[in-house]
Amino acid sequence: MTETFPAQTRSLVFRLLETYCERNGLRLTAADPHGHAGLVESPAGKRSFFKGTRFDLNSYGAAEIANDKAYAALFLKQAGLAVPTGRFISGAEIRDCKRLPDTVLDFAEQTGFPLFVKPNTGREGRDVMRIDTYHTLQNALHILAKRHDQLLLQEEVKGTELRVIVLDGEILAAIERHPPKVEGDGHRTLAELIDAEPRINATDSRLDLELSQHGRHLETVPAPGQTVTLLPVANLSSGGTARIVTSQLSPGLAAIARRAAETLNLRYAAVDLILPDERHPGTPAIILEVNAAPGLSNLSRQGEREAALVESIYAALFAALFVM
């Protein structure tokens, strides 16, 4: 039995959960018109809450550590797993100073540009910026310090991004992700090419920054066939693209993903890896971050195969969660 609102307003998670509950005799109650939160109850009275993609599966403490990029990197590194070199920065120490703290400047000098600056907590690549000069670093930190109390400065690790989804030690999926790109035709400007791509947010302020660092601007006309990368992140919510590579995942990478989830005491997690490019053979995969409540809606919208994969992931998740 399900207590819900009009079907067209419900979230993907809720719609899939609704089908699962109907098939398994569970009562589902929505807490809002979109089904962003709710309650599942068994005939025996067992209750399980959810909000967004957060379920009563991972413990609260483990999920909080995973959500904090600096803490998560600390524990992953202590476990012998490779993570980017980083520096935690308090937003308060940036907001009221005209000159960046020496600790930040020293990190930039020792690590070298380009660097990434990002919120220490957050999802979907929001406000992640790639910077290549001290001037850009100062501007980026001041902008983000107005929005976030905690920031993280990290080295750039070049390579292919891979998201591996783990549930109780089982690999549910491996998805290769690529940043948003457009291909030139020799006639249209980058602004026009971007406007023609519905997945890319043309108002994203990072577009100007990223293009300028490569000597381009929105009025640049790329040559026919020339591919231009628009953002430094591969998140699907930012217009990135995905390719399912589960069958090609090596045992070594699967083991790293399992160890990362186990290290942070997560039953369910998406482990984001950077696989160094061919110019650095033998370099281990680096764990960019671990997400305790990964969103899969954008992946589902990529196509029929991706939608089927997302449904199978949630089916496995629900089965593990609602064992009554």
TrEMBL record:
Cellular component aspect of the GO annotation: cytoplasm
One of the protein's GO biological processes: SOS response
MF annotations from Gene Ontology: ATP binding; D-alanine-D-alanine ligase activity; metal ion binding; ribosomal S6-glutamic acid ligase activity
The entry's keywords: ATP-binding, Ligase, Nucleotide-binding
Taxonomic superkingdom: Bacteria
Keyword Glycosyltransferase among record annotations: no
A Pfam family of this chain: RimK
Signal peptide range in chain numbering: none
Record has Acyltransferase as a keyword: no
Coiled coil spans: none
Every ATP-grasp domain range: 73-322
Entry-linked InterPro entries: ATP-grasp, ATP-grasp_RimK-type, ATP_grasp_subdomain_1, Dala_Dala_lig_C
Protein name: D-alanine-D-alanine ligase-like ATP-grasp enzyme
Species the sequence originates in: Roseibium marinum
